[in-house]
Amino acid sequence: MGRDLGGACISPCGNSWTRPGLSTTIRAVTDKVERRTPAPTSPKSVRFVELSSTTMRALLKDDLARASAEAGVALTEYFVTDTAKWVWQYRVNQLTSDPGYTGWLTEIVVAEPEGAVVGYAGFHGPPDEAGMVELGYSVVPVYRRQGYARAMLTALVHRAVAEARVGTVRVTISPDNAASLATISGFGFVEVGEQWDEEDGLEVIFEVPV
């Protein structure tokens, strides 16, 4: 999947490895974006809309009218980009191979009470054998730097905490994605390594125990 600078990686993990000194670079990039980006005036409220395979298949066919009707929210061109379609195809494949993925995949995110569709976010699948879940999120460009990414992250972490099977939450972020690096600050995420993703390139792996 192409790199989406509007959020944390929403595609599955690549191969993990480590490199000394990257933490210093990440702190510098994060400090820079925090200095130039004003904090939202108040926390944002969002709700999640689960997508059926039918809805995702409609998006894969560029049928926004049908997808919007199925989802019950007005979806925009952002949800039929090549990047988004890669996500929908991958999720459809997951659901087809194992219905147990239901409830643990990418969902549409809606701002409340405004009702605007501000992005998509979710998990890459249910907890693995070690109790780890990985999350990702992507914000529609016009709604970036307004607190929606943090609202998505907060909701997903809370959902993970409420699930007894989850012991660790993971997120992977490109080291030059300053906005997302700033978003995860304050949640207790700790850098545990790196990975190379065939689509997204170098990503830093962060985890937090729950």
UniProtKB/TrEMBL annotation:
Organism: Streptomyces lincolnensis
GO molecular function: acyltransferase activity, transferring groups other than amino-acyl groups
PROSITE patterns membership: GNAT (PS51186)
Pfam families: Acetyltransf_3
The N-acetyltransferase domain, residue ranges: 54-210
InterPro entries xrefs: Acyl_CoA_acyltransferase (IPR016181), GNAT_dom (IPR000182), N-acetyltransferase (IPR051531)
Protein name: N-acetyltransferase domain-containing protein
Domain of life: Bacteria
